[in-house]
Write a structure and sequence with these properties.
The protein is an alpha/beta fold and about 425 residues long. It folds into three domains: about 120 residues, Methylthiotransferase, N-terminal domain (Rossmann fold, 3-Layer(aba) Sandwich), CATH 3.40.50.12160; about 220 residues, pyruvate-formate lyase- activating enzyme (Alpha-Beta Horseshoe); about 55 residues, Nucleic acid-binding proteins (OB fold (Dihydrolipoamide Acetyltransferase, E2P)). Helices cover about 35% and strands about 20% of the residues. The chain contains 13 helices and 19 strands. The chain has a six-stranded parallel beta sheet with strand order 2-1-3-4-5-6, with helices on both faces. Strands 15-16-17-19-18 form a five-stranded mixed barrel. Strand 1, helix 1 and strand 2 form a beta-alpha-beta unit. The radius of gyration is 22 Å and the shape is globular. The protein binds iron/sulfur cluster (SF4). Iron/sulfur cluster binds next to helix 6. The site of iron/sulfur cluster has 9 residues, from helix 6.
């Protein structure tokens, strides 16, 4: 009987990608994957520590795994394992702890553990790390779009962020390895790929290449119809970069550009390297160069030094920027980051109150942006059929669309006449 392994992944696209790579290793070692709620011999929780919610959920899933099968091997990997192994050890249910840079050792570490069943820990000092751990994938279970990790680590050190300490300094993957993976995924039926990393804008800076060169080369792959970029720094949008992507039709006209705050005082305290005016200038350049472009963003509310006036600036900024989507996060202290020592902190309930106000305004603009496409016909990559019987998917500018179909259209890019909008989701008719 094959051994069973179950995965639970928290956090970002990079974590999702790394779970796929670990899953491939287990397949090659004769395991079968089962859903996390099922009985398994090994449970792997790919942890996240970006916020206290990530910590809490990671702990919950580890305990849940042990409760499901007390004899199973319980493995914690990822950012929380890297930054706080002691906390995970103190749970008393974790057998193997692996940091952010040793995931390709996971099968060997299980063998090591199974020799005398005493806890195993593999964590490196990430601040000295300079090579990219390349763990190629050929498939992306359960999705119609595949993520490709092109870069690791970050040199930005935003004052609230623990990631540079969890993932180390920025380092890029070899271009030929990325191209080979994109080709393999394309041949396996993935027509859209999402290039991801911890700080994608730093891609190529250490390997004498560039994101533009990579986008051009992937654009030449016939099987790949769409290339999407995951979160990217406002400073990446130079005139040259905008000119380059506006000439690459496969590059999706949707960019997730983290703003974090609309107040220059707060941006300075966050150690973000742009002003609100710089960000708006990027939006203007993008909207001039690329038709139908969508911009989504992240904003933190209640960061230290965010008084009523600063919060008001952020609200007014969001109204001016007309984002097609905003992820709002109440500030969450991360021990070990400079921001925890900042004065002028904002009470937790006030952070949450501001997040609620901002999210409501953002929803209005999301609806307005989507409604602006009613009457148009746009191509949609359908992902799955939902419980309401609609096939749902996304346009290249990341509009969520639902449509009815007699046949299964998952994984296909089809033209849809957009007829109605509800809470930022569009409804339409497949015209092909
Ligand atoms: S850019 Fe800033 S927020 Fe993003 S991972 Fe790096 S330090 Fe964290």
């Amino acid at each position: 009987m094959k051994k069973r392994v179950a995965f639970f992944t928290l956090g970002c696209k990079v974590n999702q990608y790394e779970t796929q790579a670990m899953e491939a290793q287990f397949m090659q070692s004769g395991y079968e994957t089962v859903p996390f709620e099922d009985y398994a011999d090994v449970y792997v929780v790919n942890t996240c520590t970006v916020t206290s919610v990530g910590d809490k959920k990671s702990r919950q899933m580890l305990r849940r795994a042990k409760a499901k099968n007390p004899d199973a091997v319980i493995i914690a990997v990822g950012c929380l394992a890297q930054t706080n192994p002691e906390m995970l050890k103190s749970l008393g249910c974790v057998d193997i702890i692996i940091g952010t840079n040793q995931k390709r050792e996971i099968i060997n570490l299980i063998k090591e553990y199974e020799i005398n069943r005493s806890p195993v820990q593999k964590i490196e000092n990430m601040m000295q790390k300079c090579d990219f751990e390349d763990t190629p994938i050929e498939n992306f279970e359960g999705r119609q779009r595949a993520f490709i990790k092109v870069q690791e680590g970050c040199n930005q050190f935003c004052s609230y962020c623990i990631i540079p300490y969890a993932r180390g300094r920025s380092r890029s993957r070899k271009e030929e390895s990325i191209i080979a993976e994109a080709e393999a995924l394309g041949k396996n039926g993935f027509c859209e790929i999402v290039l991801t990393g911890i700080h994608v804008s730093s891609y190529g800076k250490d390997t004498n290449t560039s994101l533009t060169s990579l986008l051009r080369k992937i654009s030449d792959l016939p099987q790949i119809k769409r290339i999407r970029l995951s979160s990217i720094d406002p400073n990446a949008f130079t005139s040259d970069f905008i000119a380059a992507v506006s000439c690459l039709p496969k590059v999706c006209p949707h960019f997730h550009i983290s703003l974090q705050s609309g107040s220059d005082i707060v941006l300075k305290k966050m150690n973000r390297h742009y002003t609100a005016a710089d960000y708006l200038a990027v939006l203007d350049k993008l909207r001039t160069a690329i038709p139908d472009i969508a911009v989504t963003t992240d904003i933190i509310t209640g960061f230290p030094f965010e008084g009523e006036a600063e919060f008001y600036n952020t609200l007014e900024f969001v109204k001016k920027a007309k984002f097609s989507g905003v992820h709002v996060f109440p500030y969450s202290e991360r021990s070990g980051t400079p921001a925890v020592n900042l004065a002028e902190s904002v009470p937790k309930n006030e952070r949450a109150r501001r997040a609620h106000i901002l999210a409501e305004i953002a929803e209005e603009y999301k609806s307005k942006f989507a409604a602006g496409f009613i009457g148009r016909t746009l191509d949609v990559l359908f992902e799955q059929k939902n419980k309401a019987g609609f096939y749902e998917g996304f346009t290249s500018n990341y509009l969520k669309v639902m449509a009815k179909s007699q046949t299964d259209v998952s994984g296909q890019i089809l033209p849809v006449l957009l007829e109605a909008e509800e809470n930022g989701t569009l409804f339409g008719k497949i015209t092909k």
